[in-house]
């Protein structure tokens, strides 16, 4: 399966910038893996079977949850694309149920970037694109939002 942008490029259109959702989507999975590791290590401190088996069971449950969250975050990143071409802004999310929006660069009125303190430190944020007569589109938690905005506004 190829990238969505490669399938919809018009003749003479070139991709100037591509970004994706930030790796912060993996944070719940990372935390669950740490919890699984803590339970696994804690099980080694018990001599009796019952507390040790309880810790091992909790470690397995935490690992399964971590695996689910990791696969969910990976799939979300894999099925989400955000691109700027020399003619338009294109955003696609979803695999079977797909949501896309495209906005001509000529119709972009403003591009707003919202970043929290962790977003500033880890370089992610939300971008809101306001189009002339086309409404407002918000792209959440993308990597390098300022670079993305600069590629839209620089002409």
Task: Tell me about this structure.
The chain starts with a helix and ends with a helix. The chain has five helices and seven strands; from the N terminus they run αβααββββαββα. Strands 1-2-3-4 form a four-stranded antiparallel sheet. It has helices at 4-8, 27-43, 49-78, 117-122, 145-153; strands at residues 15-19, 80-85, 88-93, 99-104, 108-114, 124-131, 135-143. Helix 2 (27-43) runs antiparallel to helix 3 (49-78). 16% of the residues are buried.
Task: Provide keyphrases for this structure.
155 residues, alpha+beta, PH-domain like, 2 domains, four-stranded antiparallel β-sheet, three-stranded antiparallel β-sheet, 5 helices, 7 strands
Strand order of the largest sheet: 1-2-3-4
What is the radius of gyration computed over CA atoms, rounded to a whole number of angstroms?
21 Å
User: What's the CATH topology label of the largest domain?
Assistant: PH-domain like
SSE pattern, N- to C-terminal: HEHHEEEEHEEH
Ends: how far apart? Answer: 32 Å
Domain count:
2
* Count of individual beta strands: 7
What is the CATH class name of the largest domain? Mainly Beta
Topology overview:
Layout: H1 4-8, E1 15-19, H2 27-43, H3 49-78, E2 80-85, E3 88-93, E4 99-104, E5 108-114, H4 117-122, E6 124-131, E7 135-143, H5 145-153
Give a brief description.
With 155 residues, the protein is of the alpha+beta class. The protein has helices at 4-8, 27-43, 49-78, 117-122, 145-153, and strands spanning 15-19, 80-85, 88-93, 99-104, 108-114, 124-131, 135-143. The chain is built from five helices and seven strands.
């Amino acid at each position: 399966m190829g990238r969505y942008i490669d399938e919809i490029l018009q003749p003479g259109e070139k991709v100037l910038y591509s970004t994706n959702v930030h790796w912060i989507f993996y944070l719940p999975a990372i935390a669950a893996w740490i919890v699984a590791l803590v339970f696994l290590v804690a099980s080694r401190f018990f001599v009796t079977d019952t507390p040790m088996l309880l810790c091992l069971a909790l470690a397995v449950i935490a690992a399964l949850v971590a695996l689910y969250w990791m696969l969910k975050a990976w799939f979300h990143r894999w099925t989400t694309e955000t691109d700027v071409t020399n003619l338009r802004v294109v955003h696609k999310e979803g695999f079977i149920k797909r949501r896309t929006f495209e906005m001509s660069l000529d119709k972009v009125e403003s591009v707003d970037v919202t970043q929290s303190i962790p977003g500033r430190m880890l370089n992610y944020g939300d971008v809101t694109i306001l189009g002339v007569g086309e409404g407002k589109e918000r792209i959440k938690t993308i990597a390098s939002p300022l670079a993305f905005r600069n590629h839209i506004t620089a002409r």
